[in-house]
Amino acid sequence: MSDVSVIDSTSAPIEVAIEESGSSEQFLRLQLVAGTTVLLPVHQLAEVLTIETHQIVPIPHLPSWVMGIYNWRGEILWMLDVGHLGGLTPWYQQSHTSIHSVAVLQMAEDAKPKTLGLVVSKIEEIEWCDPNQIQPFTAVTSKLASLIQGYWCKPNGEALAVLDGAAVIAAMPA
Prior knowledge:
alpha+beta, CATH 2.40.50.180, five-stranded mixed beta sheet, 10 strands
C-alpha cells in the first residue's frame, strides 16, 4: 500500500502541471525600445524576419511610423515602426545599424488575411502565458495603451504588455 501512496503523491503535481500548461499559449517577446517589451500572440505571427534598411521602399505622404513596403514572398508587406506608432522613440533614432528585426503580423479579418511587418528593436524569446491571466490596463492614457490588449504578470513579478494585433492593423491608414 505504501507504494501506491508514493505513486499517487508524485503523480498529482504532474497532473496539475499538465492541466495548467494546457491553458497556456505561446507569446513572442518584442523589444520596442530599450526598457519597453511587449508580447505578441504566436497565433498572430506568420514569420520573423531580419532585413536591411535598403530593402524597405519608403512611400511618401504617410504617417512617419509607416516605414514603407517590403517584398515578402512576392507580396507587398507594409512595414511599421510599432514603437513609434505607440508614441515611443522612432527606430531610426535609437539604432545605429542597417538591420531590422521584423515580426510579420497576420490576422484573418473578413475573407482575406491582413498582414503587416512590425519593425522592432529586438526579437526575444517565447513566453508561455495563460490568456485568462491577461489583465486589462486601467488609467493608462499613452498612445501605446491603444495598441495593448492588457498585461500579464510573470511569476517573478515582471509585467509584460500584450500587443493587440487587431488594434495595430486598425491603425494602418486606408
